[in-house]
Write a structure and sequence with these properties.
By secondary structure, the chain is α/β, with parallel strands linked by helices. It has one domain (3-296): 3-Layer(aba) Sandwich (Rossmann fold). It is 40% helix and 15% strand. It contains 11 helices and 8 strands. The protein has helices spanning 41-49, 76-84, 95-108, 121-133, 157-164, 172-186, 198-211, 217-228, 232-235, 255-263, 285-296, and strands at 3-5, 12-18, 25-29, 53-57, 114-119, 137-143, 242-247, 269-273. The protein has an 8-stranded mixed β-sheet with strand order 1-2-4-3-5-6-7-8, sandwiched between helices. Strand 1 and strand 2 (12-18) form a beta hairpin.
Length: 299
């Protein structure tokens, strides 16, 4: 099993390494409660085919990486209230800790610098990599993410409710139904461009569930997001070449959040795509891969 212990944070991380070890590295960082498998294999294969070494990993507290068993996330309403009035909340770990994990993966594999790509919470994580470890980043791509500014438009109710809904059971069919409900509520609205293939989606959800199910990690990761707050002021220091990708139909992290991210990173380029929600649908992979690789090559 390909696991490493990060030398800087001491966390055991499960990773996958694809492509020629001599090629430039693209490090993929996934989002809230999401395993590395949420990066579609087809996207990884396309990036490798474009001449990159691609590494994806499970964040701490999810998938096959180290879990924080017994650690309690603060009550979210209380945490939000304390944050609003300026009081700190005790969290099991911070978003910066998770950014340090990504740098630790690079350290453990002997990688001096990489192109980092993050989706959703992963976008927040790579933003903090750029803030604290900018000399290690050749480029950054922040996908369907945000600055964390609380004044931005919030997620549509149905999308957030689906994402954080408690599991009603641990049997396979209940888990699959839960995963499909999330996919339908946060993903790209069904259209001619992005048809919803229920059977293919079911197979993807089933594969992920059979790999790992760990609902306890999600509230701790969510607590880390809330604790980190607004990154606008910190992002002003970023000099890493930055691409911001965002769907115009994202119901979870609204388009304005991507616009805000690009606006607060000097020189960032914003690309928005009509009809795209909070997912990486197969028809969109050539476009997403093309944007990432063009950015990495400095085009």
């Amino acid at each position: 099993m390909p696991t490493i212990t990060t030398p800087n944070t001491g966390i055991e991380i499960f990773y996958e390494d694809h492509g020629d070890p001599s090629h430039q590295v693209i490090l993929l960082v996934m989002g809230l409660g999401a395993q590395l498998t949420l990066w579609p294999d087809e996207l990884v294969e396309t990036l490798v085919g474009e001449g990159f070494r691609v590494i994806r990993y499970d964040n701490r507290d999810i998938g096959l990486s180290q879990k924080f068993e017994g650690a309690r996330a603060p009550n979210l309403p209380i945490q939000l209230l304390r944050k609003k009035i300026g009081f700190p909340a005790r969290v099991p770990y911070t978003l910066k800790d998770m950014a340090d994990d990504g740098i630790g993966v690079m350290d453990a594999l002997g990688i001096e610098s990489a192109h980092v790509v993050g989706a959703s919470m992963g976008g927040m994580i790579v933003q903090l990599m750029a803030v604290h470890h900018g000399h290690r980043l050749m480029s950054m791509t922040s996908i369907m993410s945000t600055t964390g500014n609380g004044k931005l438009p919030q997620a549509e109710k149905h999308a957030m409710e689906a994402l954080i809904a408690p599991l009603k059971g641990m049997d396979e069919e209940t888990l699959v139904a839960h995963g499909l409900n999330i996919a339908r509520n946060i993903g790209s609205p069904e259209s001619e461009a992005f048809p919803f293939d229920a059977e293919a989606q079911r197979e993807r959800v089933l594969k992920n569930m059979r790999r790992s199910v760990y609902p306890a990690g999600l509230p701790r990761q969510l607590a880390a997001i809330i604790d980190d707050g607004c990154r606008r002021a910190r992002l002003a220091s970023v000099t890493t070449p930055t691409l911001v990708l965002h769907g115009e139909a994202d119901p979870l992290v609204k388009l304005e959040a991507g616009e805000d991210t690009a606006r607060h990173i000097s020189g960032a380029r914003l690309v928005t795509i009509p009809g795209w929600g909070h997912d990486i649908p197969l028809p969109l992979i050539p476009r997403v891969a093309g944007e990432i690789t063009a950015h990495a090559r400095g085009i």
